[in-house]
Amino acid sequence: MIKSMTGYGAGESIALSKRFTVEIKSVNHRYSDITVKLPRAYMYLEDTLKKTVASFISRGKTDVFLSVEDMENTSGEVNLNLALAAEYYKALKTLKDELSLSGDIRLENLTKFGDIFTVKTVDDDADEIIKTVKEAAEAAGKAFNDMRAVEGEKLCKDLEGGIAFLNEQVAKVGERAPKIVEDYAARIRERMKEILDGYAVDEGRLLNEVAVFADRVDINEELVRLKSHISQMQSMIKSDAPQGKKLDFVIQEMNRETNTIGSKSNDLEVAKIVIDMKSCIEKIREQIQNVE
Q1: What is the DSSP string of 75-136?
Q2: Strand 32-37 relative to strand 76-80, pairing
């Protein structure tokens, strides 16, 4: 079953007296865009989190959050990069003097530059933490995918309703298509009778005119392709593999075939059906934007 691109999931795991919590949130996006936000002391975990999350997400704008709770209040070591702080101070002083700015350069001005501080935990085992965080990310991923599956099921039902409606409209057009030529033949015969005013209608010429018209308004190929696209979509929305991009392509093709049917048919009744079909296709297209 298809999955929604939007979802949320959280998971946690404990190691070295710390609780590691991973949260995953995603919204619609044409491609896969994963952003990881985590404490400065654990920046080395960014790649692990990205790879883990990427293993179960094919597209969508995804934010991954890591929070760490120290369960035993173990201390860490804060290091100050004094040389860098001095350079920031000099730069601020130059800026103040050159632009003739008022006010003093205070401590809070310097503390805004977070890279002058580094935090080193005293008891971290990097390998153990990587393993633990990966476990938390996988737990969050499962909850995240479960939620997306539920939303995907709702999307699938809505899409099935739209597809069923399109099938009904295509059947109506198929029934109407032969009558378009019949109605044209009847109209042109009546018109020729009026013009000839009692003289016999040239059946050969009449048949030739009708044949030319029938060729011009023939929509059988478009109907066959449209039915094929609808069948493809029915199969895709039941697939467990990501189908969003494929569905987006198919709905574009369906829209194109529908437009062609409307322009070629030269029939008011078909034109009305085509308007309903285009409205339904647009609704399906909007829903597809949320399919992974």
Answers
A1: -EEEEE-HHHHHHHHHHHHHHHHHTT--S---HHHHHT-GGGEEEEESS--HHHHHHHHHHH
A2: unpaired
What architecture (CATH level 2) is domain 7-74+125-148?
A: 2-Layer Sandwich (3.30)
Residues 127-176 pLDDT 10s: 999 999 999 999 999 999 999 999 999 999 999 999 999 999 999 999 99
Residue 283 has what DSSP assignment?
H
Cα(first)–Cα(last) distance of the chain, in Å? 11
Crossing angle for the helix pair 126-196 and 220-236, to the nearest 10 degrees = 160
Q: What does DSSP assign to residue 292?
A: -
Identity of residue 20? F
- Band the pLDDT of 30: cuts 50, 70, 90: confident
pTM above 0.85, yes or no: no
Q: Where are the domains of the chain?
A: 7-74+125-148, 76-117, 150-288
∠ CA 177-181-187 to the nearest 5 degrees? 135
